[in-house]
Write a structure and sequence with these properties.
Length: about 290
Protein backbone atom coordinates (compact mmCIF):
# COMPACT_ATOMS: atom_id res chain seq x y z
CA UNK A 1 0.00 0.00 0.00
CA UNK A 2 1.17 3.53 -0.71
CA UNK A 3 1.60 6.08 2.09
CA UNK A 4 -1.49 7.85 0.81
CA UNK A 5 -3.51 4.63 0.95
CA UNK A 6 -2.41 4.06 4.53
CA UNK A 7 -3.48 7.55 5.60
CA UNK A 8 -6.83 7.15 3.87
CA UNK A 9 -7.44 3.81 5.59
CA UNK A 10 -6.56 5.24 9.00
CA UNK A 11 -8.60 8.39 8.46
CA UNK A 12 -11.62 6.39 7.31
CA UNK A 13 -11.36 3.98 10.23
CA UNK A 14 -10.93 6.55 12.99
CA UNK A 15 -13.55 8.81 11.50
CA UNK A 16 -15.97 5.93 11.91
CA UNK A 17 -14.85 5.43 15.51
CA UNK A 18 -15.45 9.13 16.27
CA UNK A 19 -18.92 9.00 14.76
CA UNK A 20 -20.00 5.70 16.25
CA UNK A 21 -18.23 6.03 19.63
CA UNK A 22 -16.70 2.58 19.30
CA UNK A 23 -13.48 1.34 20.77
CA UNK A 24 -10.72 -0.18 18.65
CA UNK A 25 -9.06 -1.81 21.62
CA UNK A 26 -11.02 -5.00 21.61
CA UNK A 27 -12.88 -7.27 19.24
CA UNK A 28 -16.25 -6.87 20.89
CA UNK A 29 -17.51 -3.67 19.29
CA UNK A 30 -17.85 -1.99 22.69
CA UNK A 31 -18.85 1.62 23.16
CA UNK A 32 -16.62 3.92 25.28
CA UNK A 33 -14.00 1.73 26.90
CA UNK A 34 -15.01 0.55 30.42
CA UNK A 35 -13.25 2.15 33.37
CA UNK A 36 -11.78 -1.16 34.53
CA UNK A 37 -10.16 -1.69 31.13
CA UNK A 38 -8.80 1.85 31.10
CA UNK A 39 -7.30 1.31 34.56
CA UNK A 40 -6.01 -2.25 34.25
CA UNK A 41 -4.70 -2.24 30.68
CA UNK A 42 -3.99 1.40 29.97
CA UNK A 43 -2.87 2.68 33.37
CA UNK A 44 -5.34 5.48 34.08
CA UNK A 45 -6.37 6.15 37.69
CA UNK A 46 -9.90 6.63 39.03
CA UNK A 47 -9.12 10.29 39.60
CA UNK A 48 -7.94 10.77 36.01
CA UNK A 49 -10.96 9.03 34.52
CA UNK A 50 -13.28 11.14 36.66
CA UNK A 51 -11.56 14.34 35.52
CA UNK A 52 -12.01 13.91 31.77
CA UNK A 53 -15.18 14.86 29.86
CA UNK A 54 -17.64 12.16 28.84
CA UNK A 55 -16.77 10.88 25.37
CA UNK A 56 -13.04 11.64 25.61
CA UNK A 57 -12.04 8.06 26.43
CA UNK A 58 -12.54 5.99 23.28
CA UNK A 59 -10.08 3.27 24.25
CA UNK A 60 -7.73 4.05 21.37
CA UNK A 61 -4.51 4.03 23.35
CA UNK A 62 -2.06 1.44 24.65
CA UNK A 63 -0.94 3.27 27.77
CA UNK A 64 -1.05 6.50 29.73
CA UNK A 65 1.84 8.74 28.60
CA UNK A 66 0.85 11.53 30.98
CA UNK A 67 1.59 9.24 33.94
CA UNK A 68 5.27 9.04 32.99
CA UNK A 69 5.87 12.40 31.34
CA UNK A 70 7.58 15.04 33.49
CA UNK A 71 4.84 17.63 33.04
CA UNK A 72 5.31 20.89 34.92
CA UNK A 73 3.10 23.89 35.51
CA UNK A 74 3.47 26.30 32.61
CA UNK A 75 4.62 23.66 30.09
CA UNK A 76 3.45 23.63 26.48
CA UNK A 77 2.49 20.05 25.58
CA UNK A 78 1.96 18.63 22.10
CA UNK A 79 -0.11 15.44 21.69
CA UNK A 80 0.47 13.55 18.43
CA UNK A 81 -2.75 11.87 17.31
CA UNK A 82 -4.91 13.33 20.06
CA UNK A 83 -8.14 11.53 19.14
CA UNK A 84 -11.05 12.65 21.31
CA UNK A 85 -8.64 14.33 23.72
CA UNK A 86 -8.22 12.11 26.79
CA UNK A 87 -4.48 12.70 27.23
CA UNK A 88 -4.79 16.39 26.33
CA UNK A 89 -7.30 16.97 29.10
CA UNK A 90 -5.15 15.12 31.63
CA UNK A 91 -2.07 17.10 30.55
CA UNK A 92 -4.01 20.38 30.73
CA UNK A 93 -4.78 19.80 34.38
CA UNK A 94 -1.11 19.24 35.20
CA UNK A 95 0.30 22.22 33.29
CA UNK A 96 -2.26 24.59 34.77
CA UNK A 97 -3.56 27.89 33.49
CA UNK A 98 -0.09 29.15 32.62
CA UNK A 99 0.48 26.11 30.42
CA UNK A 100 -1.07 25.03 27.15
CA UNK A 101 -1.84 21.76 25.39
CA UNK A 102 -2.06 21.31 21.62
CA UNK A 103 -3.66 18.18 20.23
CA UNK A 104 -3.04 17.27 16.58
CA UNK A 105 -5.11 14.74 14.64
CA UNK A 106 -5.59 14.17 10.91
CA UNK A 107 -9.22 12.99 11.20
CA UNK A 108 -11.76 15.83 10.96
CA UNK A 109 -14.37 13.84 12.91
CA UNK A 110 -11.94 13.36 15.79
CA UNK A 111 -11.06 17.04 15.84
CA UNK A 112 -14.77 17.94 15.92
CA UNK A 113 -15.37 15.55 18.78
CA UNK A 114 -12.35 16.75 20.74
CA UNK A 115 -13.46 20.36 20.37
CA UNK A 116 -16.95 19.44 21.54
CA UNK A 117 -15.42 17.76 24.58
CA UNK A 118 -13.38 20.89 25.26
CA UNK A 119 -16.50 23.04 25.23
CA UNK A 120 -18.40 20.63 27.45
CA UNK A 121 -15.57 20.54 29.99
CA UNK A 122 -14.93 24.29 29.85
CA UNK A 123 -11.19 23.75 29.50
CA UNK A 124 -9.45 26.93 28.42
CA UNK A 125 -5.86 25.81 27.93
CA UNK A 126 -6.40 23.10 25.29
CA UNK A 127 -6.71 23.48 21.53
CA UNK A 128 -7.02 20.94 18.74
CA UNK A 129 -5.50 21.34 15.28
CA UNK A 130 -6.18 19.34 12.14
CA UNK A 131 -2.96 18.02 10.64
CA UNK A 132 -0.71 15.06 9.97
CA UNK A 133 1.85 14.05 12.55
CA UNK A 134 4.43 13.79 9.76
CA UNK A 135 3.90 17.51 9.11
CA UNK A 136 3.01 19.06 12.45
CA UNK A 137 1.15 22.40 12.40
CA UNK A 138 3.40 23.94 15.06
CA UNK A 139 6.42 26.24 14.99
CA UNK A 140 10.04 25.14 15.50
CA UNK A 141 11.17 24.81 19.13
CA UNK A 142 7.77 25.83 20.46
CA UNK A 143 6.80 23.04 22.91
CA UNK A 144 8.28 21.57 26.09
CA UNK A 145 6.81 18.08 25.97
CA UNK A 146 5.62 15.80 23.16
CA UNK A 147 3.34 12.90 24.05
CA UNK A 148 1.66 10.27 21.91
CA UNK A 149 -0.52 7.26 22.70
CA UNK A 150 -0.56 4.34 20.26
CA UNK A 151 -0.59 6.53 17.15
CA UNK A 152 2.93 6.65 15.69
CA UNK A 153 2.65 2.96 14.74
CA UNK A 154 -0.12 3.99 12.33
CA UNK A 155 2.13 6.37 10.42
CA UNK A 156 3.59 5.22 7.08
CA UNK A 157 6.70 7.33 7.79
CA UNK A 158 7.64 6.93 11.45
CA UNK A 159 11.17 8.42 11.13
CA UNK A 160 9.57 11.61 9.79
CA UNK A 161 7.25 11.73 12.80
CA UNK A 162 10.23 11.61 15.15
CA UNK A 163 12.04 14.28 13.13
CA UNK A 164 8.97 16.50 13.41
CA UNK A 165 8.68 15.90 17.16
CA UNK A 166 12.35 16.84 17.50
CA UNK A 167 11.82 20.00 15.45
CA UNK A 168 8.84 21.08 17.57
CA UNK A 169 10.60 20.57 20.91
CA UNK A 170 12.63 23.23 22.64
CA UNK A 171 16.17 22.28 23.67
CA UNK A 172 15.90 20.19 26.83
CA UNK A 173 12.39 19.11 25.89
CA UNK A 174 11.10 15.58 26.36
CA UNK A 175 9.16 13.11 24.23
CA UNK A 176 7.11 10.41 25.96
CA UNK A 177 5.45 7.83 23.73
CA UNK A 178 3.20 4.85 24.46
CA UNK A 179 3.17 2.56 21.45
CA UNK A 180 3.02 -0.93 19.97
CA UNK A 181 6.15 -2.37 18.34
CA UNK A 182 6.90 -5.70 16.71
CA UNK A 183 9.14 -8.37 18.20
CA UNK A 184 8.63 -10.72 15.22
CA UNK A 185 8.06 -10.00 11.55
CA UNK A 186 4.58 -10.24 10.07
CA UNK A 187 4.16 -11.70 6.59
CA UNK A 188 4.09 -8.94 3.97
CA UNK A 189 0.58 -9.90 2.86
CA UNK A 190 -0.77 -9.37 6.37
CA UNK A 191 0.95 -5.99 6.69
CA UNK A 192 -0.51 -4.85 3.35
CA UNK A 193 -4.10 -5.80 4.15
CA UNK A 194 -6.25 -2.70 3.74
CA UNK A 195 -8.75 -3.77 6.40
CA UNK A 196 -6.01 -4.30 8.99
CA UNK A 197 -3.64 -1.42 8.34
CA UNK A 198 -5.50 0.92 10.72
CA UNK A 199 -4.90 -1.52 13.58
CA UNK A 200 -1.90 -1.10 15.83
CA UNK A 201 -0.19 -4.34 14.82
CA UNK A 202 0.00 -4.42 11.04
CA UNK A 203 1.53 -0.96 10.77
CA UNK A 204 3.97 -1.37 13.65
CA UNK A 205 7.77 -1.23 13.33
CA UNK A 206 10.33 -3.64 14.79
CA UNK A 207 11.31 -2.51 18.29
CA UNK A 208 14.99 -2.07 17.53
CA UNK A 209 14.21 -0.07 14.36
CA UNK A 210 11.74 2.10 16.27
CA UNK A 211 14.33 3.04 18.89
CA UNK A 212 16.98 3.59 16.20
CA UNK A 213 14.64 5.96 14.34
CA UNK A 214 14.22 8.05 17.49
CA UNK A 215 17.97 8.31 17.91
CA UNK A 216 18.46 9.10 14.22
CA UNK A 217 16.08 12.06 14.59
CA UNK A 218 18.55 13.57 17.07
CA UNK A 219 17.13 12.49 20.41
CA UNK A 220 19.35 11.51 23.32
CA UNK A 221 18.83 9.33 26.42
CA UNK A 222 16.36 7.10 24.58
CA UNK A 223 15.04 4.56 27.04
CA UNK A 224 12.18 2.09 27.42
CA UNK A 225 10.49 2.88 30.73
CA UNK A 226 8.02 0.00 30.72
CA UNK A 227 7.32 -2.93 28.44
CA UNK A 228 4.62 -5.58 28.52
CA UNK A 229 2.84 -7.99 26.18
CA UNK A 230 0.46 -6.30 23.78
CA UNK A 231 -2.32 -8.84 24.17
CA UNK A 232 -5.56 -7.26 25.37
CA UNK A 233 -4.33 -3.79 24.42
CA UNK A 234 -3.74 -3.84 20.70
CA UNK A 235 -6.34 -2.73 18.25
CA UNK A 236 -6.91 -5.86 16.27
CA UNK A 237 -9.03 -4.52 13.46
CA UNK A 238 -9.44 -1.40 11.38
CA UNK A 239 -11.37 0.78 13.79
CA UNK A 240 -14.71 -0.96 13.96
CA UNK A 241 -15.71 -4.59 13.92
CA UNK A 242 -16.28 -7.30 11.36
CA UNK A 243 -14.71 -5.39 8.50
CA UNK A 244 -15.32 -8.25 6.12
CA UNK A 245 -19.06 -7.76 6.47
CA UNK A 246 -18.74 -4.00 5.88
CA UNK A 247 -16.47 -4.21 2.88
CA UNK A 248 -17.13 -7.14 0.55
CA UNK A 249 -14.21 -7.80 -1.78
CA UNK A 250 -13.50 -9.61 -4.98
CA UNK A 251 -12.41 -13.13 -4.11
CA UNK A 252 -8.62 -13.43 -4.07
CA UNK A 253 -6.42 -16.53 -4.32
CA UNK A 254 -5.94 -18.39 -1.04
CA UNK A 255 -2.84 -16.99 0.77
CA UNK A 256 -0.04 -19.25 2.02
CA UNK A 257 -0.56 -21.09 5.30
CA UNK A 258 1.93 -18.93 7.23
CA UNK A 259 0.03 -15.82 6.20
CA UNK A 260 -3.31 -17.37 7.17
CA UNK A 261 -1.86 -18.47 10.52
CA UNK A 262 -0.54 -14.97 11.26
CA UNK A 263 -3.89 -13.44 10.34
CA UNK A 264 -5.71 -15.91 12.62
CA UNK A 265 -3.42 -15.06 15.53
CA UNK A 266 -4.07 -11.34 15.11
CA UNK A 267 -7.82 -11.78 14.66
CA UNK A 268 -8.02 -13.99 17.77
CA UNK A 269 -6.15 -11.45 19.88
CA UNK A 270 -3.01 -13.57 20.29
CA UNK A 271 -0.82 -10.65 19.35
CA UNK A 272 1.87 -11.35 21.95
CA UNK A 273 3.53 -13.61 19.39
CA UNK A 274 4.28 -10.55 17.28
CA UNK A 275 4.05 -7.41 19.39
CA UNK A 276 4.78 -5.71 22.67
CA UNK A 277 3.59 -2.47 24.26
CA UNK A 278 6.27 0.02 25.31
CA UNK A 279 6.61 3.42 26.95
CA UNK A 280 9.61 5.30 25.57
CA UNK A 281 11.22 8.49 26.81
CA UNK A 282 13.71 10.58 24.81
CA UNK A 283 15.22 14.01 25.31
CA UNK A 284 16.32 16.81 23.00
CA UNK A 285 19.72 18.05 24.09
CA UNK A 286 19.92 21.37 25.88
CA UNK A 287 23.02 22.10 23.83
CA UNK A 288 21.12 22.10 20.52
CA UNK A 289 21.63 25.49 18.89
CA UNK A 290 19.81 24.91 15.64
CA UNK A 291 16.94 22.82 14.32
CA UNK A 292 17.82 19.91 12.12
CA UNK A 293 16.54 20.12 8.56
Amino acid sequence: MSDDDVRKAVRRSYGRVAREERSCCDSGCSQEVPAEVAKTLLGYTDEQLAAIPDGANLGLGCGNPTALASLREGDVVLDLGAGAGIDCFLAAERVGKRGRVIGVDMTPEMIDRARENTEKAGVGNVEFRLGEIEHLPVADASVDRVISNCVINLSPDKPQVFREAYRALRPGGEMLVSDIVLIADLPAEVRADADSVAGCITGAMRKEEYLAAIEAAGFERVEILTERPAGGIAKQESGACDSAKRSPRVRQPEPPEDVRQAARLIDSGKVDVFATSIHVRAVKSVAVSSIRA
